[in-house]
């Protein structure tokens, strides 16, 4: 069913025709200006404190974080995390140019395939697009180089994220997506899917007992690459 057919069906249900010109102009203006809502003061802090806030919130939600100073350290950080969790050194990785350019050959015991995840994969390594400090949330828009299946199927998800991609509030993350992404078909910025991930999957639906891995990964580990000098902790 086309968009016009869907909208026509909604209008019939509401028993009205198209919006008058003044109301249509008001709605178009609201969509174009992206008005701000209440932004928590806790996210309006200097860059080092924003990154520290992001880490605290991730850990509060049962995730874990490791920081590295250089991209060359990332394969070693992945290997160390897998060993610490007693997991096989094998994973599926996002076919992202930034990840593929890492020196994986320095850790020859690591085995991986760059592709979408399958039900039999136990560990995934995902490319982190952006993150929101106020809640410790990852923004993961779908992309051929960032398959959504990596966020759902593996029991353990590792996300490689640059500190320069951590923002204070949700509005700033959406601003980043609007600014950087243009869909070649529609001209808009929205991908097919945007996942906002705060910690590993969990549920307390049954007798209010918290169960990790209820609808997705049981473990979420973030490797932060310190690429933003302004975000480094004070010496």
UniProtKB/TrEMBL annotation:
InterPro entries: FTHF_cligase-like_sf (IPR024185), LUD_dom (IPR003741), NagB/RpiA_transferase-like (IPR037171)
Pfam families per record: LUD_dom
Domain LUD: 53-225
Superkingdom of the organism of origin: Bacteria
Protein name: LUD domain-containing protein
Organism, scientific name: Neoroseomonas lacus
């Amino acid at each position: 069913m086309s968009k016009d057919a869907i909208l026509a069906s909604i209008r019939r249900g509401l028993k009205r025709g198209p919006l008058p010109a003044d109301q249509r102009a008001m709605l178009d203006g609201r969509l174009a200006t992206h008005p701000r809502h209440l932004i928590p003061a806790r996210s309006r802090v200097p860059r080092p404190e924003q990154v520290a806030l992001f880490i605290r919130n991730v850990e509060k939600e049962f995730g874990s974080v490791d920081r590295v100073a250089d991209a060359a350290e990332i394969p070693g950080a992945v290997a160390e995390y897998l060993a610490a969790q007693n997991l096989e050194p094998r994973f599926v990785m996002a076919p992202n140019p930034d990840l593929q350019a890492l020196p994986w050959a320095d850790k020859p015991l690591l085995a991986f395939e760059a592709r979408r995840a399958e039900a039999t994969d136990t560990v995934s390594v995902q490319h982190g697009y952006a993150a929101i400090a106020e809640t410790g949330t990852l923004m993961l828009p779908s992309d051929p180089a960032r398959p959504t299946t990596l966020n759902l199927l593996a029991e353990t998800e590792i996300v490689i994220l640059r500190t320069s991609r951590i923002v204070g509030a949700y509005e700033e993350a959406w601003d980043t997506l609007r600014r950087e992404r243009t869909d070649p078909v529609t001209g808009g910025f929205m991908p097919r899917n945007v996942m906002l991930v705060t910690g590993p999957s969990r549920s307390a639906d049954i007798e209010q007992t918290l169960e990790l891995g209820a609808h997705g990964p049981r473990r979420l580990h973030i490797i932060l690459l310190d690429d933003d000098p302004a975000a480094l902790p004070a010496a």
